Amino acid sequence: MPETHNRMFEKATQDAADHLIQPWPSAGSVGAEARGMLGSGEGVYVHDDKGRKLIDGPAGMWCTNVGHRNEALADVLREQAMELSYNSPWYTSNEPSAELARRIAGHAPGDLNHVFFTTGGSTAVESALRFAQFYNNVRGLEGKKKIICRDGGYHGSTYLSATLNGSQRSRNWMDFADDLTIRLSCPDPFRRPDGMSIEDFSDHLVREFADAVEEHGAESIAAFVGEPIMASGGVIVPPDGYFKAIREICTKHDILFIADEVVTGFGRLGHVFASETCFDVVPDIITFAKGVTSGYFPLGGMVVSDRLLEGLRASNHPEAMYAHGLTYSSHPIGCAVALKNLDILEDELLEYTRGITPYFHDRMKELEELELVGEVRGMGLMACVECVADRESHNPIRLDTEVGVRIDRHCQELGLLVRPLVHMCVMSPPLVITRDQIDSMVGILHEGIWNG
Ligand SMILES: Cc1ncc(COP(=O)(O)O)c(C=O)c1O
Predict the structure, then answer these.
(1) pLDDT of 394 higher than 80
(2) What is the pLDDT of residue 398?
(3) Best of 119, 122, 299 to mutate for ligand 1, by most ligand atoms within 8 A of CB?
(4) Cα dist. 116→85, 111, 139, 295, 427 in Å?
(5) How close is the Cα of 181 to the center of ligand 1, in Å?
(6) Closest ligand 1 atom to the C-alpha of 300?
(7) Exposure pattern of 374-389 as b/e (b: 16+ CB <10 Å)?
(8) Comparing 1-10, 201-210, 316-325, 341-350, which segment has the lowest mean pLDDT?
């Protein structure tokens, strides 16, 4: 690495340690932490401050779907900035956001035909939750406020979206609107009760959902929010039929079904949206972000069903205002980038992803031969390697919390960025990954876990 680069990284590392508050910091190092620096990227690779070329295993944070350094997206970013860099969505509109809304509606299932754009995933979920509250208030159902969520879920870092998060680690030191939530079990087949079949586990989860509705009363419940596949929770693919059964209960009790497709949307499972194509469910609202711009610009949003909007328009309160909007809602640059990103997905990448998915899983599954690996699971181009202390037990004792970090360290030395989640390694590479690159990734993971 050239000496000038070295000096640049050293200075940036020092500046970060002196002045930058990193996301999700711990009290002991807040504002004084230097994380590894990345300098540049290309395709599935990133280059770090040690001069290494690494496969970007998690595609940043599940978002760099078309890969790094995509020239078409970079060109659009510049062109739109030179055309119209910003307009106030309070009293004007722009062409890219209108076209993008139309095209997203064309991909969304059922009558989900209207799109509200936000700045990312948390604000998308927050918007959906506030919309559900507004919807019920306008209909005179002010008591219908609670939100059903699940252990293991992740929905964001704004107050209400974070309240739904299901990892204990993130709940220990923060405040939440817990009186608004009903928390149910994680639908993780790998950690189902001993001796229970997957079918029985699914029935058990659906019964738990129905019991919760009965106990709290449908008149107090506004919505269920769930990721089709729990991403940060460890790529949890729920049992077959689970979502369909929950959708039926929601429909019966006028509870909105909100699918959080922030990770599963925009190509990760080979489709623009996965709810209907992969899980046979038409939600009332879908939230999205990340892959919508492949991370080139912060953008998210929610797609809302016509039925809900018609319900509002038919209410006795035409004056009622959904008092919610962001300075950067419908951002022209973000929407222009998303349009080009969608072109790439539609023209080649969705089909390519569906084609390469079986190879990705066949190769990833081979890691189960390692003693430390309890299960490799996933769908589309997302997978999780879950390490266990005891392979024989159906409900293995969790390993020490450093195992993922150790694997990540070994893998980085060998040329792969891993996303360690305590004892799990999550892989969600850019969708442009080739078979050869999958071979390299799995080879490095094999060695990294072996040494973990
Ligand atoms: C399923 C899901 N929803 C919401 C979010 C929050 O998105 P953001 O970090 O863009 O606010 C995330 C982030 O990882 C996510 O995985």
Answers:
(1) no
(2) 60
(3) 122
(4) 19, 15, 21, 18, 30
(5) 18
(6) 10
(7) bbbbbbbbbbbbbbbe
(8) 1-10
